[in-house]
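quick q for whoever's on today - can somebody do inverse folding on this one?? i tried earlier but teh output was garbage lol. tokens:
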């Protein structure tokens, strides 16, 4: 059965790997699974055909046979369970890897997204100037906790796992703020993720779509 995912016809990030379909592409590349991509416009994302798969009108989605999934974390978790290569064999280590997946999207990503919202969507509000330092501090505090936990380890819990895939994808969004530079071990962690051949293939596939004429 062919796996089909959806992605932006033209991503707001211009192909810099920030769109969430990159995470799904990366997971599929790590487990060496071929996939098709159905590109959707912003208009198409709000139409009935796409809403039947993703009720919130976003991307990515994942379809395989009779299965249709939305939400990046759920999709990557499904891929990790379905194919070998993203979760450890040991049951306890698998559980910890899944915990890091949830930590990435539930604990680390929200303050990073809050900063992006403040800078992009709320930059014209009268209270943004006062609020922005508070948002930055919240993100900085979370990254400091992650930095302390990672220490000088290569990955979060032994070998690379879906937990690292999700965490790298999340902290990638913090790079533009400059705050990540305050934590050299996290910057190096991000660089290790981006250096993986599977990530490079996923990044290039997303970049090509968004830089075509």
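ok took a stab at it. sequence:
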């Amino acid at each position: 059965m062919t796996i089909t995912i959806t992605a932006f016809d033209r991503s707001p990030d211009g192909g810099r790997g920030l769109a969430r379909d990159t995470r799904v592409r990366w997971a599929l590349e790590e487990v060496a699974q071929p996939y098709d991509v159905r590109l959707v416009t912003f208009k198409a994302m709000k139409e009935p055909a796409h809403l039947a798969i993703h009720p919130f009108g976003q991307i990515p989605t994942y379809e395989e046979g009779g299965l249709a999934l939305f939400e990046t974390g759920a999709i990557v978790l499904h891929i990790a369970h379905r194919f070998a290569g993203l979760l450890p064999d040991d049951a306890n280590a698998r559980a910890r890897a899944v915990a890091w997946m949830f930590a990435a999207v539930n604990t680390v990503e929200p303050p990073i997204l809050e900063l992006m919202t403040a800078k992009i969507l709320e930059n014209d509000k009268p209270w943004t100037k006062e609020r922005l330092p508070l948002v930055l501090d919240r993100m900085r505090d979370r990254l400091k906790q992650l930095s302390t936990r990672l220490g000088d380890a290569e990955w979060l819990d032994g070998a690379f796992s879906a937990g690292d895939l999700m965490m790298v994808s999340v902290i990638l969004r913090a790079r533009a703020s400059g705050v990540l530079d305050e934590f050299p071990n996290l910057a190096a962690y991000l660089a290790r993720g981006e250096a993986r051949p599977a990530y490079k293939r996923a990044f290039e596939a997303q970049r090509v779509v968004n830089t075509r004429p």
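fwiw The beta strands are 3-8, 35-40, 61-64, 67-70. also The domain at 3-86+198-211 is CATH 3.40.30.10 (Glutaredoxin). so keep that in mind when u check it
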